[in-house]
């Protein structure tokens, strides 16, 4: 997992509340066995018409926001079912940070384990960021996990809180497997002692 320290990026405004995981990645794509390629189906039902053409007014289809790695959205982002595929889709599309007033708990955990920093700001602050991204061409933010700040070049500055353990894992680029491998030597020692004790007991 790639570590997250400081990110400066174009901002994509998703001015919607209660964005659930079935909207992030619709259920028909959950049958895939790979963990990659889900970005093609991110917000699929909002991006395409029933005939398969692009919905021009939907923000992911707006060329002004091509390459954005920061997504700003309304409250209760990631609600609904607990599918980890939602985090995979956002990450695969290229998002490394989502800013919203609130997030669903299970999605919050899944996102962090997949290298996505979720930043909680007040509704007023998020509204300001949404308006800035919608009205200022090329609007960018700098998100620092080290300093726990969100800033732009127009005077906006905000602090955010983050769980110390999640902060450590993101800064170090550690998912659950990487975190376990940090203790590989101790695990090997335990296994060796366990095997020896089992062998002696069996004698």
Tell me the helix content: 25-40%
**H/I helix tally:** 8
Query: What is the β-strand count?
Result: 7
SS-based class: alpha/beta
- The count of domains is 2
Give the percentage of residues in beta strands.
Answer: 15-25%
C-alpha-based Rg, rounded? 20 Å
Lateral strand order in the biggest sheet: 4-3-2-1-5-6-7
Shape: globular
CATH superfamily of the largest domain: Aconitase, domain 4
Span of the ends, CA to CA: 45 Å
* SSE ordering: EHHEHEHEHEEEHHH
The name of the CATH architecture of the largest domain is Alpha-Beta Barrel
CATH structural fold name of the largest domain: Aconitase, domain 4
Give a concise summary.
The chain has 8 helices and 7 strands; from the N terminus they run E-H-H-E-H-E-H-E-H-E-E-E-H-H-H. The protein is an alpha/beta fold and 203 residues long. The protein has 2 domains: 6-172, Aconitase, domain 4, CATH 3.20.19.10; 174-203.
Characterization of the model:
By secondary structure, this protein is an alpha/beta fold. The protein has two domains: 6-172, Alpha-Beta Barrel (Aconitase, domain 4), CATH 3.20.19.10; 174-203. It has eight helices and seven strands, in the order E-H-H-E-H-E-H-E-H-E-E-E-H-H-H. It has a seven-stranded mixed β-sheet with strand order 4-3-2-1-5-6-7, with helices on both faces.
Features:
203 residues, alpha/beta, Aconitase, domain 4, 2 domains, seven-stranded mixed beta sheet
């Amino acid at each position: 997992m790639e570590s997250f320290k400081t990110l400066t990026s174009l901002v994509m405004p998703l001015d919607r509340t209660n964005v659930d995981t079935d909207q992030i990645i619709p259920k028909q794509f959950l049958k895939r066995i790979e963990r990659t390629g889900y970005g093609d189906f991110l917000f699929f039902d909002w991006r395409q018409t029933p005939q398969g053409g692009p919905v021009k007014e939907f923000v992911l289809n707006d060329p002004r926001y091509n390459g954005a790695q920061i997504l700003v959205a309304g409250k209760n982002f990631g609600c609904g079912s607990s599918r980890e595929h939602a985090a995979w889709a956002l990450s695969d599309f290229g998002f490394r940070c989502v800013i919203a007033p609130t997030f669903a708990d299970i999605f919050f955990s899944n996102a962090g384990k997949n290298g996505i920093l979720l930043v909680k700001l007040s509704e007023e602050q998020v509204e300001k960021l949404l308006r800035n991204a919608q009205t200022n061409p090329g609007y960018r933010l700098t998100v620092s996990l080290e300093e726990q700040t969100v800033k732009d070049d127009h005077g906006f500055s905000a602090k955010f809180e983050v769980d110390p353990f999640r902060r450590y894992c993101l800064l170090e680029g550690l998912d659950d497997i990487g975190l376990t491998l940090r203790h590989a030597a101790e695990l090997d020692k335990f296994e060796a002692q366990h095997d020896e004790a089992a062998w002696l007991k069996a004698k």
